[in-house]
Amino acid sequence: QVQxxxxxxxxxxxxxxxxxxxxxxxxxxxxxxxxxFRQAPGKEREFVAxxxxxxxxxxxxxxxxxxxxxxxxxxxxxxxxxxxxxxPGDTAVYYCGAAQPYSGFNYYTSNxxxxxxxxxxxxxxx
Length: 126
Known about the structure:
Number of helices: 0
Distance between the termini: 40 Å
Low-confidence stretches: none
Number of strands: 11
Strand content: over 45%
Structural class: mainly beta
Helix content: under 10%
Radius of gyration: 14 Å
Shape: globular
């Protein structure tokens, strides 16, 4: 069982930055494929970024590529999402997810993730 707790959300003006954190307990994050998803009101949860178990590979949605960076530290058992050049369209609740990859695993599919945090609100004003 993995418990995930997100933090770092808030209100920021367009063009600003935030860093989200996802702290894990129960298991070391190096055992899991980790990702950030987001969900805006009235919309489905969408993929934002993911990092492989080794940390060697990262993946991003086209909408955030070049602006967001996902990283993780084994020592702190925490995954981060650095968000720069924020836009009003980035406004959403951001969720951290953990998955153990299997044959057919798709890192960009929320249903493939087993553990989720409670989410943290990010609001970008224009």
